[in-house]
Write a structure and sequence with these properties.
51% helix, mainly alpha, 191 residues, 8 helices, two-stranded antiparallel sheet, elongated
Amino acid sequence: MAAAMGSSVRFKGIDREVRLRLPFPVRAYLASDAAVFTLRMPDDQEGAFQAACETIETVLSGIDTLPVLPSEAEEILTILPRERLKWTKDGRLLSAGTKTVKMRGRAKAVTFHVHDPRHIEDVLDRDMPTAWREADAAETAENRRKGAGKAALTRSGKSGPKLPTARRSKRDPEAVDLAGWREFDAEGFLR
């Protein structure tokens, strides 16, 4: 099935979507294996069989527009969750919107980005994750080099000229004890 894009996780999602649309008693007769759906029903249920076939065809005709979930995108593109999050935040992996679900056993709903299947196919065909990883590695190396340079300057004490700290007198909170203040005060402001 082309809509699964080679992902077993996406095929399971498609299988769930098909089963969700079928009447509950008919779901037991549907089998799915290796991206193939098989519907086997007793001969006396011809009407239910035809209705189920029509429902399955209707669902499968629009299944290629079904948004790609995060776990599906990770499996299709063979990327890590942190890469998917970073690339979605950077705008490299385009979001088709968000989806919010309330999972059993959780107090709060979970919101996550979903992706357009055509965009995922395009990214996969052009092998963009490899190029993005190389760019990220180069950026990381540059940041580490800059950080090491800053740390070396800090350790050597050459981070810049240190300015004297102002100390306030206990007698006069407005008085400031600066180096050279007495000579300045003695000469005056405009000399």
